[in-house]
Amino acid sequence: MTAFVIFDVEVTDPAGYEGYKQLAAPTVALYGGEYIVRGGKTETLEGNWNPIRIVVLRFENMERAKAWINSQEYSEARALRHKYSISKAIVVEGA
Asked: Does the predicted TM-score (pTM) go above 0.85?
């Protein structure tokens, strides 16, 4: 079943985060993933969730999504994301 990795990101250093984006994109493609949402305007419809930046990736399945996020290829980018942002991530199965 298709899996989606959803990030809620607060960028703390925009210049540094640009380096993350450059490194991350090729690793997503390497694992067969694709960007569905990459930033963009958000509007809260219910509750008190006010995300600043949402990123949604689609992978073939949950195993592939987890293989990507834990991969050696993504490790340098992941370290930059942790350095230049505060982020939360989940993976969810969907259609």
From this structure: yes
